[in-house]
Specification:
The complex is a heterodimer of chains A (546) and B (403).
Chain A lengths: L5 H12 L4 E2 L2 H6 L6 H8 L10 E3 L4 H13 L4 E4 L16 E4 L6 E5 L4 E5 L4 H10 L2 E2 L12 H7 L6 H4 L2 H4 E7 L5 E3 L10 H5 L8 E8 L1 E2 L3 E9 L2 H13 L6 E5 L1 H8 L9 H13 L11 H6 L4 H12 L2 H10 L4 E9 L1 H17 L3 E4 L1 H9 L9 H4 L2 E11 H15 L4 E7 L5 E11 L3 H21 L18 H5 L3 H11 L30
Parallel strand pairs in A: 2-4, 3-4
Antiparallel strand pairs in A: 1-2, 5-6, 6-10, 7-11, 8-9, 8-10, 12-14, 12-15, 13-14, 13-17, 16-18, 17-18
Helix pairs in contact in A: 1-4, 3-20, 10-16, 19-20
Chain B lengths: L7 H11 L5 E3 L9 E4 L4 H14 L2 E3 L7 H5 L4 E4 L7 E5 L4 E5 L4 H10 L2 E3 L11 H7 L16 E7 L5 E3 L13 H4 L8 E11 L4 E7 L2 H13 L6 E5 L20 E6 L9 H13 L8 E4 L13 E4 H11 L7 E7 L2 E6 L6 H13 L8 H11 L11
Parallel strand pairs in B: 2-4, 3-4
Antiparallel strand pairs in B: 1-2, 5-6, 6-10, 7-10, 8-9, 8-10, 11-13, 11-14, 12-13, 12-16, 15-17, 16-17
Classes of the chains: A alpha+beta (546), B alpha+beta (403).
Chain lengths: 546, 403
C-alpha cells in the first residue's frame, strides 16, 4: 500500500467532510495532541507542548461521513483517533502515531425521546450537559453526572465506561445503554439493537473499547423520570472501617442512594472544612497549606479559592518553596495527614419518589448510626452537590508550581476493599502525597478514588516519578485483588497493567481486533499492550502509518 | 493431527490417562468413525487436559448431548461429549461482598438449595431450568423472567472462568464494576460454547427473597399495563413483573388468581428480599399496600408461594418497548389472545412471546409484532462472530458444526 503524502491525505479527506471541516493548522494540531492526561501536562511543563500532534483533524457531519473517513484511512493504513470532548485523563486520545483525529462533536442530535418507554436515542458527539438539559426539558434525567459532564460527550462515556457521581442509584453508563451504533474501519455500521435473548452482547463488547475497534456514532439509553425529591445527609465516623461497614450495610440492605461517599481522614478534613480552627498549630498550618494546594485541583476539591486565601499573601517564590518543601517529603506529610485528628465524613443522598426517598433516608440513617455514624446534618452534602463540578475543566495550580496531581479510581469487592486501600497507600506514600475517598458503592463492592500529588525539580524527573507512582500503585491494586480502573478507562496510563488485569482473556481482544480492524488503524497503541499490528512511527514526509 | 491408523481404542487409552475410567462413557459408535465418549472432568485441570488432548487429536468437543448425525458431519474425527456434573463445587461463598463462586456444573436447584441454607438466593429465577447446570444456563444465555430489581442474567455475573479450545485458562474474580476495556465475559454468555468453556462463575447473591406474589386480573392489556406502570411509578422495583394470559393447555390456577373470561390478563408482581434489615413480611406488606394505592383501586391478591411459571420459552421471544406494548394493547382491545406473556418488565419495556397453537385475529396481531421485532435474516454481527470463531478456535474443536 503506497503511503499518502500530506497533500493527498488532505485532498482525500476534504472530499469527504469538506475543506472547512478539516484542519491542519498548528493550533488545532497542538490542541488535539493531548487530552487531560496529567502526564501530558508534565510534558508541557517541560516545554514540550506538541509531542504527538495528529496529521490533521476532521469533523464529520454524520455517521455516513464517519464511515467514509474510516474507510479511507483503513484503505491507506492511516491511524485514526476518535475524539469526543477530550476530557479523558488517561491519554486515550493522544495520537501517538499521528494520523487523523476524528472529532465527532458535529454528531450532536438527540434523535428521539420515547416518552412511553423512557428511552432516549442520541448521537455520540452530544455534550453531556446538553443531553441532560434536553432530557430535563422532557421530564427525564439520564442520571449520569460525571464531573466532566460539561466537557465530555456521550460517545466518550461509552468508549471509556464512564461513571457518574450518582452511579450507586443509576449505574454506570454501560448499565444505561440499551444499544449502540458503531462504525468499524471498513465502513461497516453495526447496530446492536437487534439482539434477541441469547447470543453474545455486542453492546458490551464495544463499550469500553476506547476507540480501538471502531467509532461509536449513537446510542439508545434508558432514562428516568426527574426525581420528585432529593435528600442529602452527612455522617461522621470515628474510624474509616466503621464508615465502610456502614456503607456496605446500606448497599446490601437493598437501598439505592444516589450518592454515597466516604472520605478518608485527610480528605475529610477538606470536606469538613477543619481549617477554621481558632488556634492553628504548625502542623495544621502545614496541612492547611497542602489542603489548599489540592483545592481546585483534584476531584476532591470542595473549597475553591482556599489556596488563594492560604497562600495569597505569599510571593510566587514563597508559594513554590512551600510546595517544594511539602511535596519533597511526601512520607512525612502523609504521616502527618494520617495522624490528623479527623473523623471520616460520609455523604449519603437519595432521590426519587418523595415517599421512597423519605423511607430510604430513614433506613440508611438507622444503618449508619448502627455502624457508629454520627449525623452531621445536611450541610456537607449540600455543599458537595453545589460544588461537584468545580473540577475537571481547570488544571490544578500545582502544575503552575512545578508539581503534578492525578487521580486513580480503582475498585474491589467489599472483602478486599480495606486491604486494597492500605496496600495502595503503602505503595504510594513514600513517593507522593496521597488521600482518598470511597464512592460509587454497589452491593458487592466499591470504588476508591485516590488523589495524589508529587514534585520533582524538572519535568523529566517528574515524569519518571509519575510513571513510578503509577507502576507501584497498579501493582498494589492487582496484588490486592482489585481492578485498576473503575471509570476513567485505560488509555496509555494503565495499559501496562492490562496483562495482569486480564491474563489470557486478552486473546479475545486480539481476536476482536483482527476481525474488525485487520489493518490496526483504530487508535493504535492504546488500551492493551502487544497489539497484533505493530504501528510504525511516522516519518516526516508521509502521514502517520499504522 | 489425526492419524488414519489411530484406533478409537488408543484414544480411549489416552483419555484414561487424563480422567479416571469411571468418568468416561463410550457412546454409540460406528465402524468407520473416530470414536465418541462422554467425559466428565472433575476438576479444571482435567478439563484443560481434555481440551489439550482434543487439540492434539483434532477431536470435536461438544457441550451438549450426542446427536444422531454428529458422526456423519465429522467423519473420522473423535468426539468428546463433555459433562459438567462432577464440577459442582461451591468454591467461595463470600457473604461480606454478596458473591458466590461456583464450578459451572452445579445445577440451579442445588445452588439455590445451598444458598437458601444461608438465607441467600441468586438473581436467577428458581423455577425454570431447575436441573440445568449454571454453565449451560450461562452459555445459552437463557434469560430469566426476573424484573427490574436484579436485572438480566448477564447482570448477575461478576466474572467467568473460561477454558479456551487450546486449553489456556482465563478469568478470575471480578470487581463490582470496571473500566478496563470491553467486558470480554459477554462473548461467552450466550455463545453456546463456541469460543470457550465456562468452568467457573462468580455470581451476585441476594438475601433470600420473599415467597409471595401479588396478582391482579385485568380486563384488558391496557389496564394491565397501566397497573404495572403505576406500580413502578410509585417506586416499586420488584424482582419480577409479568403479564400473562394462560395458554389453552394450561388451566392452572385460573380461579386461584381471579382470572375469568371478563378478566383474562394476569399481572404478577413478586417482591424481593428484606429491606434494611426489616423482615420479609414487611416487604410483602410494603408491596401490597403500595399497590393498593393505585387509582382506581385494582384489588390485588396476595398468594403464599410463587405463582407457577409460564412454560419454557420454545416460541420466539422479542424485546419490546413500552410504546409498542401500548400500541399493541390498543389494537387488541378486549380481545387478548391466550398464551401471551410479557416478562422481565421494567419502565422501559419487556420481553414478549405468544404460545404456539393459538389462533384467531388477536393472536395474529401479536405474532405480527413478534415477527416485526425479530431480527430479519442474518444478524449483522454474525460475520464477526464467525471471524472470532476462526481466531479463537482455529481447529474448530469446540461445538463444531461440521462446516
Amino acid at each position: 500500500m503506497a503511503r499518502l503524502s500530506q497533500a493527498e491525505l488532505i485532498a482525500g479527506l476534504s472530499r469527504i467532510v469538506g475543506a472547512e471541516h478539516l484542519s491542519t493548522t498548528r493550533p488545532d494540531r497542538i490542541a488535539y495532541s493531548a487530552d487531560f492526561w496529567p502526564k501530558a501536562q508534565i510534558w508541557k511543563q517541560g516545554g514540550d507542548i506538541e509531542r504527538y500532534p495528529p496529521d490533521c483533524v476532521v469533523w464529520p457531519a454524520d455517521e455516513a461521513e464517519v464511515g467514509k473517513v474510516l474507510r479511507f484511512c483503513h484503505d491507506h493504513l492511516i491511524p485514526i483517533v476518535p475524539y469526543g470532548g477530550g476530557s479523558g485523563v488517561c491519554g486515550g486520545t493522544i495520537p501517538i502515531h499521528g494520523g487523523v483525529v476524528v472529532d465527532v462533536k458535529r454528531l450532536s442530535k438527540v434523535t428521539a425521546i420515547d416518552h412511553a418507554s423512557a428511552v432516549v436515542t442520541a448521537e455520540a458527539g452530544i455534550n453531556g450537559q446538553h443531553l441532560e438539559d434536553r432530557l430535563n426539558a422532557a421530564g427525564f434525567t439520564l442520571g449520569h453526572f460525571p464531573s466532566s459532564i460539561m466537557c465530555s460527550t456521550l460517545g466518550g462515556w461509552l468508549a471509556a465506561r464512564s461513571a457518574g457521581q450518582f452511579s450507586s442509584r443509576y449505574g454506570k453508563i454501560e448499565d444505561m445503554v440499551l444499544s449502540l451504533r458503531v462504525v468499524f474501519p471498513d465502513g461497516t455500521v453495526l447496530d446492536t439493537s437487534e439482539r434477541g435473548p441469547g447470543g453474545p452482547d455486542w453492546t458490551q463488547l464495544v463499550c469500553g473499547s476506547e476507540g480501538t475497534l471502531g467509532i461509536i456514532t449513537g446510542a439508545e439509553l434508558k432514562v428516568n423520570p426527574l426525581p420528585e425529591a432529593r435528600r442529602l445527609r452527612a455522617f461522621r465516623f470515628r474510624h474509616l472501617e466503621d464508615g465502610l461497614r456502614g456503607a456496605r450495610a446500606v448497599m446490601q440492605a437493598g437501598l439505592r442512594p444516589m450518592v454515597l461517599r466516604l472520605y478518608d481522614p485527610f480528605d475529610s478534613l477538606i470536606a469538613l472544612g477543619k481549617d477554621k480552627s481558632p488556634q492553628p498549630s504548625d502542623r495544621q498550618s502545614l496541612l492547611d497549606g497542602i489542603r489548599g494546594l489540592f483545592s481546585g485541583a483534584g476531584a476532591t476539591s470542595e473549597r475553591e479559592g482556599l489556596l488563594r486565601r492560604r497562600l495569597g499573601p505569599l510571593t510566587h517564590t514563597a508559594k513554590r518553596a512551600a510546595l517544594v518543601g511539602a511535596l519533597s517529603a511526601p512520607a512525612i506529610v502523609n504521616r502527618l495527614a494520617a495522624a490528623a485528628p479527623s473523623p471520616c465524613l460520609m455523604i449519603v443522598g437519595f432521590e426519587g419518589p418523595a415517599d421512597a426517598v423519605h423511607a430510604d433516608a430513614w433506613s440508611a440513617g438507622e444503618l449508619l448510626a448502627e455502624a457508629g455514624g454520627v449525623d452531621a446534618g445536611a450541610g456537607p452534602g449540600e455543599h458537595w452537590l453545589a460544588h461537584r463540578y468545580d473540577v475537571s475543566f481547570k488544571q490544578s495550580r500545582i502544575y503552575d508550581m512545578g508539581g503534578f496531581v492525578d487521580t486513580m479510581e480503582v475498585a474491589a469487592t467489599w472483602d478486599r476493599l480495606e486491604g486494597m486501600y492500605a496496600a495502595v497507600r503503602r505503595a504510594m506514600t513514600p513517593l507522593v502525597f496521597v488521600m482518598a475517598h470511597f464512592s460509587h458503592a454497589y452491593r458487592e463492592g466499591c470504588s476508591i478514588y485516590f488523589t495524589f500529588a508529587g514534585f520533582r525539580r524538572d519535568a523529566a524527573r517528574s515524569e519518571q516519578l509519575y510513571d513510578r507512582v503509577w507502576r507501584v500503585a497498579t501493582d498494589a491494586v492487582v496484588s490486592a485483588g482489585g481492578t485498576v480502573s473503575h471509570h476513567h478507562g485505560v488509555g496509555l496510563s494503565k495499559m501496562n497493567a492490562m496483562t495482569q488485569e486480564h491474563g489470557h482473556m486478552l486473546r479475545v481482544w486480539r481476536a476482536l481486533k483482527d476481525v474488525v480492524d485487520p489493518h490496526g488503524v483504530m487508535n493504535p497503541g492504546k488500551l492493551f499492550p502487544e497489539a497484533p499490528h505493530k504501528a510504525a512511527e511516522p516519518d516526516s514526509s508521509t502521514v502517520g502509518v499504522a | 493431527m489425526i492419524s488414519p491408523h489411530t484406533k478409537p481404542t488408543s484414544y480411549l487409552d489416552e483419555l484414561r490417562r487424563i480422567v479416571p475410567t469411571e468418568q468416561i462413557e463410550p457412546q454409540i459408535d460406528t465402524a468407520d468413525d473416530g470414536g465418541a465418549w462422554a467425559v466428565e472432568p472433575a476438576t479444571q485441570i482435567e478439563l484443560v487436559e481434555v481440551l489439550k488432548w482434543a487439540n492434539g487429536r483434532h477431536a470435536a468437543v461438544f457441550t451438549r448431548r450426542p446427536r444422531r448425525h454428529d458422526a456423519d458431519l465429522l467423519g473420522r474425527r473423535p468426539r468428546i461429549y463433555l459433562r459438567g456434573r462432577r464440577m459442582k463445587r461451591v468454591k467461595d461463598l463470600d457473604i461480606v461482598s454478596g458473591t458466590v463462586t461456583v464450578q459451572s456444573g452445579i445445577t440451579m436447584s442445588e445452588l439455590h438449595r445451598i444458598l437458601e441454607e444461608r438465607s441467600f438466593t441468586t438473581g436467577f429465577p428458581t423455577r425454570p431450568w431447575r436441573q440445568e447446570s449454571i454453565g449451560s444456563v450461562l452459555a445459552a444465555a437463557l434469560d430469566a423472567h426476573w424484573g427490574p430489581r436484579y436485572g438480566s442474567m448477564e447482570d448477575q455475573v461478576l466474572s467467568l472462568g473460561v477454558v479456551f479450545p487450546d486449553g489456556s485458562v482465563a478469568g478470575g474474580r471480578g470487581a463490582p464494576r470496571k473500566a478496563v476495556g470491553p467486558d470480554f465475559d459477554r462473548l461467552f454468555l450466550g455463545s453456546r460454547g463456541r469460543y470457550g468453556i465456562i468452568y467457573e462463575a462468580t455470581l451476585r447473591i441476594y438475601p433470600s427473597a420473599t415467597r409471595v406474589a401479588m396478582s391482579y386480573a385485568a380486563p384488558d392489556l391496557t389496564t394491565a399495563l397501566e397497573a404495572v406502570r403505576g406500580g413502578i411509578a410509585l417506586g416499586l422495583d420488584p424482582r419480577a413483573i409479568e403479564l400473562l394470559t394462560p395458554a389453552p393447555d394450561r388451566a392452572w390456577g385460573r380461579k386461584r388468581v381471579g382470572l375469568t373470561d371478563d378478566r383474562p390478563v394476569l399481572v404478577i408482581v413478586e417482591p424481593w428480599g428484606p429491606l434494611a434489615g426489616r423482615p420479609v413480611a414487611w416487604i410483602d406488606n410494603h408491596f401490597a399496600t403500595t399497590l393498593e394505592r393505585l387509582e382506581p383501586p385494582l384489588g390485588w391478591n396476595m398468594h403464599e408461594g410463587l405463582l407457577p411459571a409460564p412454560r419454557a420459552w420454545a416460541e420466539p421471544v422479542v424485546g419490546v418497548r413500552w410504546a409498542r406494548l401500548l400500541e399493541l394493547a390498543q389494537q387488541l382491545g378486549r380481545d387478548v389472545p391466550p398464551g401471551l406473556w410479557v416478562v422481565r418488565m421494567s419502565r422501559h419495556g419487556g420481553w414478549l412471546s405468544l404460545a404456539s397453537g393459538v389462533d384467531g385475529p388477536s393472536a395474529e396481531i401479536v405474532r405480527a409484532l413478534v415477527q416485526e421485532l425479530r431480527p430479519a435474516g442474518p444478524l449483522p454481527w454474525e460475520r464477526f462472530e464467525d471471524g472470532l470463531k476462526r481466531e479463537l478456535d482455529p481447529k474448530d474443536i469446540l461445538n463444531p458444526t461440521g462446516t
